[in-house]
Amino acid sequence: MLFIKSYIKSVQFFFMFIIIMYCTSCKENQNKVVTIHAAGLYTDSLNPGPLFFLNKDTGFILGSYLVDAKNPVYPKKDDREYLGTKWVALLWKTIDGGRNWTKKIWGEGHIAQIDRFGDSVIALMKTDRYTRVFISSVFNPDNWKEITYFPRYAYHICASGNQMAALKTDSFKYKIFFCFSDNRGRDWMNNCEPIHDPYQYPVLKDGKLFYLARFESDKKYPDSLVVYDFAKNSDKLIKLPKDFLCLGVSCVQNNIYLTGFMSGGITIYQLDPTLEFKKLYTYAANNLSDPLVYYKSNGADWIFAVENNGSRKKIAIIKTSDNGKSFETFKVDYIRNIYLHSFIEQDSMVKVWFFNESGKFQIFESKNK
Asked: Strands across the sheet with 140-147, in order?
């Protein structure tokens, strides 16, 4: 009898352990949206720009504000002392995942881009005259120093390994040029004017720029993909698939992906090595518009789009872990802009920050699988 009681207790303990482990597992694999208040982030004068997170703790928001500009030829203190206004650049930083922020004033201009390139973080600050470039280490992203070996009028930089490409203008800001570096920006070559202007910022892969363009001038949206080869100083124009309204090109894990609409749903294409389009899948949803970002983690694909459901909009987060055979959809409150660099993948988790410009963040967390 004592043996039976002991056996029953062992079985009860075993099943209790299984239930606890199951509940814990379910909890760990839950997708969740957390709202946090950001202390020190004064949005009344922020004029926020891109949001960039280096890891789950350290992130930046680019901002700027207007100040009165003095008239250099009339220093007296009366109505003619001020000539107009000018922008002053701000950089906000958090080291606790967005809960607290500190501000750094960078001077006249605005920061157009901040990005990670290898072990460095690079920021481009545009002024009325030219572009100033600053660099910092990812291990100490407070120690910024200005560098002068980047193109003087660059307004966007993209990278792939040791290769970097810069988009720049002439001094009059009339024309666009492409520049290329194969040693992380130390030396630049190919100050070339493209035949087809980019519809959006290009992406760089294997010494080539990939970007959307409108070959037929009467089209409202891009109808072609351009592949610009720096080594050959030439470009190749590839017509997009018929009835495919492409709104974005991205390079993820060294593959080129195109995101857009087709047949009433959001469609993903991949460009194969022979420069042919391969359709991966379509997510059918009639009330979604503007696929804003395509992101590929180690275990899943993610699409972020706007849900128009009556007067109140939502951001729809669409996930597939089996290449479009099945989908999961999550929703957060609508915000005006979504930036790719507010996404990180760390510790088998995808984490996204959504900033509504009112001092609050919605943070979405999900396991990869």
From this structure: 110-117, 120-126, 131-137, 140-147
- Count of C-beta atoms within a 10 Å radius of residue 189: 10
Alpha-carbon span 57 to 137, nearest angstrom? 16
- CB neighbourhood size of 184 (10 A): 16
Q: Show the tokens assigned to 326.
A: 């099945």
Amino acid, single-letter form, for residue 76 = K
100: left (phi over 0), alpha (psi -120 to 50) or beta: beta
The residue count of the chain comes to 369
Token pair listed for 40: 């020190």
Task: Compute the chain's Rg from CA coordinates.
Answer: 25
Q: Given strand 51-53, what is the order of strands in its sheet?
A: 51-53, 59-70, 82-94, 102-108
pLDDT (tens place) for every residue of the chain, 369 residues total: 444 445 444 434 433 433 333 333 333 345 788 888 888 876 555 666 778 888 889 999 888 887 767 666 666 666 556 666 778 888 989 999 989 999 888 888 888 899 989 899 999 998 888 899 999 999 888 889 999 999 989 999 999 989 999 999 887 777 899 999 999 899 998 788 888 889 889 999 999 999 999 877 666 788 999 999 999 988 999 999 999 999 899 998 899 999 999 988 999 999 999 999 999 999 987 788 776 688 888 889 999 888 877 667 788 889 999 999 999 998 887 766 555 556 788 777 888 888 766 677 888 888 766
Our separate counts of H helices and E strands in the chain read: 1, 28
Whether 240 and 223 have beta carbons less than 8 Å apart is answered as yes
Cite the DSSP H helix spans in the chain.
2-28
From 37, 25, 157, select the one nearest 97 (Cα to Cα).
37
